[in-house]
Write a structure and sequence with these properties.
With 213 residues, the chain is an alpha/beta fold. The protein has a single domain (4-212), classed as Rossmann fold, CATH 3.40.50.150. It is built from 8 helices and 8 strands, in the order ααβαβαββαβααββαβ. The protein has an 8-stranded mixed sheet, with helices on both faces. α5 links the parallel β4 (91-97) and β5 (117-125). The termini are far apart.
């Protein structure tokens, strides 16, 4: 008889690498809120692999429908306006995967995440990556990379930042970076604490584990 957890682990290898890394950061049985959960790939992983008590918040009706079809507990809502409805410390972990840069008010969204979650996981594309800098310097045009693949007029990203910018935002909000994983060319590098200048130059994206204070 095949263990469904083994099946899920096998399918995990075919998913976005940042989602696999995020799943590894979540403890078994944790109460999790996945903000901007899309069609539920990550939330499904967490329920299957971590036995998480998972909830999701998704803006698009199509995404909500896809999540419900997977049997996931997801509601339609906007991260910029609807996080205030969740209670203080309502979750062990609050996750925002490659969504912060698409919000209207990243500062407020991150502050609300810190209110409702004991820990936070945030993944962001890095606008400080060397390829982005080179494209702007030599071509004078908005860059397109593996993590920033949409044309400027089609992208949902409205608040792009570098890793150093995000470090500063965490400091402003009184959040500590417990650890960080940077990604470049499919390779992950684990860092204790916030990433520095070298990581900001070389990383295409990063996954942050954050705590209050």
């Amino acid at each position: 008889m095949i263990d469904p957890r083994a099946n899920a682990a096998g399918n995990l290898a075919e998913k976005r690498i940042d989602l696999r890394l995020i799943a590894d950061m979540v403890e078994d049985g944790a109460r999790v809120l996945d903000i901007g959960c899309g069609e539920g790939e990550l939330l499904d992983m967490l329920v299957q692999l971590r036995h998480a008590d998972g909830r999701g918040l998704e803006l698009s009706q199509a995404g909500v429908n896809a999540c419900v079809a997977r049997g996931l507990s997801v509601v339609q809502g906007n991260a910029d306006t609807d996080l205030s409805y969740y209670p203080d410390n309502g979750f062990d972990m609050v996750i925002l995967s490659q969504t912060l840069q698409a919000t209207q008010k990243p500062h407020d969204v991150l502050r609300e995440m810190a209110r409702i979650g004991k820990q936070m996981i945030v993944s962001i594309p890095n606008f400080g990556h060397w390829q982005v800098r080179l494209n702007l310097l030599t071509g004078g045009r908005m860059p397109e990379t593996g993590t920033l693949s949409a044309s400027w007029y089609e992208t949902a990203n409205i608040h792009l930042c570098t890793l150093l910018d995000f470090n500063d935002l965490c400091d402003t909000l009184g959040l500590s970076v417990d650890r960080c994983i940077t990604l470049s060319n499919g390779r992950a590098r684990h860092i204790s604490g916030p990433p520095g200048n070298r990581h900001n130059l070389l990383a295409e994206m990063a996954v942050y584990l954050l705590k209050r204070g």
